[in-house]
Amino acid sequence: MNTFMLAGVSSNVGKTTVTMGVMAALCKRNCPVVPFKTGPDYIDPMFHTFVTGKKSTNLDTWMVDRETIRSLFYHKLSVDSVAVIEGVMGLYDGHGLETDVGSSAYLSKVVDAPVFLIIDGRGMSKSAAAMVKGYVDFDPDTRIAGVIINKIASESHYQLLKEMIETYTGVPCVGYFPNCPDIVMNSRHLGLIPVDELQGLREQVEKAAALAEEHIDLDKMLLLSRREAIPQVQEDPFDACAGHYDDLTIGFAKDKAFSFYYEDNFNALRKLGVRLVPFSPLEDCELPQGLDALYIGGGFPEMFGRDLEKNQAFRESIRAALENGLPCFAECGGLMYLTESMEMLDGEKYQAAGFFKADTKMTRRLQRFGYIDIDTVINHTPIHIKGHEFHRSLVHEKEPIPTRYQITKGDRKWTCGFCKGNTLAGYPHIHFYSNPQFLLALLDKAEEIKRLEEQDSENSNG
């Protein structure tokens, strides 16, 4: 088994491109690559899945406790796996000054994965050694096994940097990526553009794989990241309730407009016995039949506002279902879609589902970004859970809407989690493994509503 992390000295050093190339090259060698992403990002795991054909897992050490992270990681591996973890931001960038929780470095120590540090080699010689030495010495417990130099103009420049780094730090350079403008991951206001909106991605992956095979010593990386056995870890927190909700069928929004989901959230639902049914607010005329609840994740509904507006039949279908009491849990983009309209920066406005008496307006400035603490009550159960917010929009209420989330970030406090009927919708993205009681309480409520509806039906027929 192999486990390693690809982490950058900062954002924008080409970490995703290098990761994509290394994963693709290993897959071409028929290595059983298992992909992971540090932190809460939704889009990078889509690239991992596209490259490897396997669902990528978010490992967020701020939202999810240490032992659960180990469980989520190692339960997905076998003795022949090659686990590749992509880092987030710079190697040591975490939650704050007092702790490195949430950082790539902290995760590497939690799962005992050596780090291959990615640097941008442009315009440097001996300074590259100083940079690497600083990262090596900053935390000796973080095991930096090698260096990959990105955006190199020539083989001779790489050899110069390699000699400097290895002489002054003792850390081997395992290769480089040439500066290749043909491989570009384009971005928009919330990060990289998702996989299913990109043209020609397969060709870019092939180019990245060829560059990794030619210029990176993959054999050395595998040698430096080899481990003999999978360690013992705790059981999955949802194992105790496995199969308990096999009478529930939950529909989830999945298309280009709604694609932000943690894969382990789906895994938890499946483990609990829930039947999952996808639906598309872009393409479907109505909700699937026989649903007991809805799960509407985030995404970019504002980018597809015109098409969502055109699908009036579906908007009427979902609004009617929610007004009739169908339970629903929605996050960020899901919340935006459930308002009456979404207004773009240029003033253009698109009609949305219209369940909440409110409008969503896009903003030039980032409204919320980062980790948050959430206190709420679900089905009479007080629950504390950790979440993450990242949005450039605001919801403007036309009438007061009750909220269920009391949110804290440092010394700031606010409310969210709009509640109407059996719908709970808020900006926070929530990882169900942060506190399993949150998901169990939502499912208990859905079961309770289903039983009441069945009883009403029996009484009416009787």
UniProtKB/TrEMBL annotation:
Cofactor: Mg(2+)
Record-marked site positions (Increases nucleophilicity of active site Cys): 429
Pathway(s) where this gene product acts: Cofactor biosynthesis; adenosylcobalamin biosynthesis; cob(II)yrinate a,c-diamide from sirohydrochlorin (anaerobic route): step 10/10
BP-aspect Gene Ontology terms: cobalamin biosynthetic process
GO MF term set: ATP binding; cobyrinic acid a,c-diamide synthase activity
Alphabetical keyword list: ATP-binding, Cobalamin biosynthesis, Glutamine amidotransferase, Ligase, Magnesium, Nucleotide-binding
Domain CobQ/CobB/MinD/ParA nucleotide binding: 5-183
Reactions catalysed: cob(II)yrinate + 2 L-glutamine + 2 ATP + 2 H2O = cob(II)yrinate a,c diamide + 2 L-glutamate + 2 ADP + 2 phosphate + 2 H(+)
EC number: 6.3.5.11
All residue ranges annotated as the CobB/CobQ-like glutamine amidotransferase domain in the record: 249-435
Signal peptide: none
Record's keyword annotation contains Magnesium: yes
Keyword Transmembrane in record: no
Gene3D superfamilies per UniProt: 3.40.50.880, P-loop containing nucleotide triphosphate hydrolases
InterPro entries the record matches: CbiA/CobB_synth, Class_I_gatase-like, CobQ/CobB/MinD/ParA_Nub-bd_dom, GATase_3, P-loop_NTPase
Enzyme class: ligase
Active site residues per record: 332
Similarity section: Belongs to the CobB/CbiA family.
Annotated function: Catalyzes the ATP-dependent amidation of the two carboxylate groups at positions a and c of cobyrinate, using either L-glutamine or ammonia as the nitrogen source.
Additional detail: The a and c carboxylates of cobyrinate are activated for nucleophilic attack via formation of a phosphorylated intermediate by ATP. CbiA catalyzes first the amidation of the c-carboxylate, and then that of the a-carboxylate.
Swiss-Prot/TrEMBL domain comment: Comprises of two domains. The C-terminal domain contains the binding site for glutamine and catalyzes the hydrolysis of this substrate to glutamate and ammonia. The N-terminal domain is anticipated to bind ATP and cobyrinate and catalyzes the ultimate synthesis of the diamide product. The ammonia produced via the glutaminase domain is probably translocated to the adjacent domain via a molecular tunnel, where it reacts with an activated intermediate.
HAMAP family: CobB_CbiA (MF_00027)
PANTHER family: COBYRINATE A,C-DIAMIDE SYNTHASE (PTHR43873)
Protein name: Cobyrinate a,c-diamide synthase
Organism: Eubacterium callanderi
Lineage, uppermost ranks: Bacteria, Bacillati, Bacillota, Clostridia, Eubacteriales
